[in-house]
Amino acid sequence: MAERSAELEPISQPGRVADSDEGIGLDELGLAARNHGMPLEAMRYDVTPLGLHYLLTHYDIPETSADDWTLTIAGLVDHPLELSIAEVQSLPRVTTAVTLECAGNGRARMLPRPVSQPWLHEAVGTMEWTGTPLRPLLERAGVDARTVDVVFTGADHGVDRGIEQDYARSLPLTEALLDDVLLVYGANSAPLLPQHGYPLRLVVPGWYGMAHVKWLRTIELIDHDFDGFQQSAYRIRESADDPGRPITRIEPRALVIPPGWPDFMSRSRFLRPGQLMLEGRAWSGWGAITAVEVTVDAGLTWDEAELAPATHGWAWRRWKLPWHAAEGRYSISARAADDTGRGQSGRQPWNRGGFANPTTQEVDVLVTSQAASR
Ligand SMILES: Nc1nc2c(c(=O)[nH]1)N[C@H]1C(S)=C(S)[C@@H](COP(=O)(O)O)O[C@H]1N2
Ligand SMILES: [Mo]
């Protein structure tokens, strides 16, 4: 089903921005309860175990079956294709570890807060995706020279800001033809779970999550820039009437595995004094991570962490830094830079959608030899 209302940017009903003193509302809580993050201690795994990966589904998880699924490749092609899941699975098979991060990661820490899924830092995960490269299928269909965008549409359906739609996102043809773009039917050696797009999803290594269309039904080649709702929604805009710029690849980010043990409500941490290893992950969708710096004193001083050897191109990289924790209070953060010169600056450039917030974590830690009781 196509979108019911032809909307051009900017979307006529912009998302809401919370008042400066407005807490998280029940609607945001509802979204957060459906769309869980990855518990940050799960950064200990190179590959995020099934069920621990973050989840973001705008509407409902559709009822789908591999048995009667058809993937259609149509639009500006010489020979439209219709493929069953069995046919997709009979094509050359690739398995690759890719880190996904939601473009809204960090949104809840923007001030004022754009009202949407209120992520703190946990909208990230890395799975080993199994599928087949998209490019040979597009070549088999025969790409018309007039093609500008390739539109990927999922089976999920809903309404956002008054626009009824199937979830749909496009890639510029040049990006869709990159060798690492995959049609994926498996994750971590198992069939895709329903919530991650069973029976078929797109994986676009390096891009923010919104590009990785789940429950993929149709691929359509068009001769203009796609202006569907989700294409217009994911832009960096400073105001409601700012046309903004599209969100594409993942900006560099480093996160710390919170050390010690947490306080139930505040999630602040406790540690015994002594020698320990701070560890975490860093990733970028633009290039290889080249540096991670860590502070334990709220940004007064930064130390360079040791990077583990890079594994897969688009999977996060492990880092570590030995720390002698003396009694006292600390605020721990990490920041990353990549080989394209991009890096996490301390300051957040605010934007209306709450996207790509580079602000670092602030892990509050009390190092004490006493039992943590009052
Ligand atoms: N069909 C469909 N695909 C989708 C979405 C969706 O709501 N519907 N959400 C997108 C967003 S915003 C993100 S961050 C990722 C999340 O993928 P995951 O839930 O498998 O972690 O899926 C993307 N693909
Ligand atoms: Mo997302």
What is the compact description of this entry?
The chain is mainly beta. It has helices at 26-34, 85-89, 135-141, 173-176, 229-233; strands at 70-75, 81-84, 94-101, 124-133, 149-160, 163-172, 182-187, 190-191, 201-203, 216-222, 235-236, 245-246, 253-256, 261-262, 269-271, 274-283, 289-295, 303-304, 306-307, 317-325, 328-338, 363-367. It contains five helices and 22 strands.
Which features does this protein show?
binds the ligand Nc1nc2c(c(=O)[nH]1)N[C@H]1C(S)=C(S)[C@@H](COP(=O)(O)O)O[C@H]1N2, single chain, 374 residues, 22 strands, binds molybdenum atom, 2 domains, 6-stranded mixed beta sheet, Immunoglobulin-like, Sulfite Oxidase, Chain A, domain 2
Descriptive overview:
There is one protein chain. Strands 14-15-22-21-17-18 form a six-stranded mixed β-sheet, with no helix packed on it. It has a five-stranded mixed β-sheet with strand order 2-1-10-5-6. A hairpin with an 8-residue loop joins strand 11 (235-236) and strand 12 (245-246). It folds into two domains: 26-246, Alpha-Beta Complex (Sulfite Oxidase, Chain A, domain 2); 253-367, Immunoglobulin-like. It has helices at residues 26-34, 85-89, 135-141, 173-176, 229-233, and strands at 70-75, 81-84, 94-101, 124-133, 149-160, 163-172, 182-187, 190-191, 201-203, 216-222, 235-236, 245-246, 253-256, 261-262, 269-271, 274-283, 289-295, 303-304, 306-307, 317-325, 328-338, 363-367. The protein is mostly beta strands and 374 residues long. The N and C termini lie far apart (59 Å). 41% of the residues are buried. The protein binds the ligand Nc1nc2c(c(=O)[nH]1)N[C@H]1C(S)=C(S)[C@@H](COP(=O)(O)O)O[C@H]1N2 and molybdenum atom. The ligand Nc1nc2c(c(=O)[nH]1)N[C@H]1C(S)=C(S)[C@@H](COP(=O)(O)O)O[C@H]1N2 binds next to strand 5.
